[in-house]
Amino acid sequence: MTLDATSQPVQLAEETYPPRSLLQLTVRRFRRHRMAMVGLAILLAIVLYIGIGSLVFSEAYANYNDTSIRLQPPSAQHPFGTDTVGRDILARTVYGGQISLIIGLFAVLVEVTLGTLIGAVSGYYGGMVDSLLMRFTEALMSIPSLLLLLVMAKFLSGKIPDIMLFGRTFSGSVVVIILIIGLTGWTYLARIVRSSFLSLKESDFVLAARALGIPDRRIIFSHILPNTMASVIVAATLGVATAILSEAYISFLGLGVRPPTATWGSMLDGAYDYLEQAPWLWFYPGLLIILTVMSINFVGDGLRDALDPRSEYKV
Predict the structure, then answer these.
(1) What domains sit in the chain, N to C, each tagged with a CATH number?
(2) Which pTM was predicted?
(3) Fewer CB under 10 Å: which end of the chain, C or N?
(4) DSSP letters along the chain, please?
């Protein structure tokens, strides 16, 4: 209340805001995270680069060898130059990026499925089940992940034939890499989900559900798991970046995706002997890996802050 020119009390109108849903609040907090928005913009640009590039270049062109133009520097005809057998690097980064992102996404799908199930069962039931599952998880965590990736990639290399999907031929090693990364990367997520279940299973809404005779499976998947999805989403987002880097590691060491299927990591492997003679061989795929991983990490940080009600990014 205030006074107008005639000294009469005037009631100030109170500002009212429409109620916002949890999704709207999360989106609003995410949009206020500047680095997350920068990362999202970079990531969308890379996806557009890969998508539009596949409409401009065919996969046959990306794999076409012409030794007469091998190791040509960037030019108008070949903006990213050519590799050691005369293949266009620009076209190969397009199709290599598709495989790298496919590996990252599907490997994280395996990680999230295993990690969520094992963590949920371990945290909800506790006791002997928890002890057995967590000792198994800790045993896997004690093994260096890169060493385990190399051993499994060497052992399984060549065991799976090429597959046809969406009209494209994928090397069987793509499936092997997805399974290896997925089966070795779920342990950290299992511990995150377990800790959330341990803190939530004694909550009032869970105790009420048990008193009503609701089956454990429904309590786990319908009552507790939705309250842990924030942690799962953030871990999955960051897991995509880790999977892309893991594929680059083993491909650089010659144990990744087999030719002619290209990935950014396998392109770096082919550039090892030409670091100074032909820097364009490693610069462009390396730059794309850096930008992709960096942008995914920025988005993951933004999601973490947006899904945290105590975040500094208030609405």
Answers:
(1) 35-58+91-307 (1.10.3720.10)
(2) 0.80
(3) N
(4) -EE-TTS-EEPPPPP------HHHHHHHHHHT-HHHHHHHHHHHHHHHHHHHHHHHS-HHHHT---GGGTTPPS-SSSTT-B-TTS-BHHHHHHHHHHHHHHHHHHHHHHHHHHHHHHHHHHHHH-HHHHHHHHHHHHHHHTS-HHHHHHHHHHHHTTSS--EEETTEEE-HHHHHHHHHHHHHS-HHHHHHHHHHHHHHTTSHHHHHHHHTT--HHHIIIIIIGGGGHHHHHHHHHHHHHHHHHHHHHHHHTT-SSPTTS--HHHHHHHTGGGTTT-THHHHHHHHHHHHHHHHHHHHHHHHHHHH-TT-S---
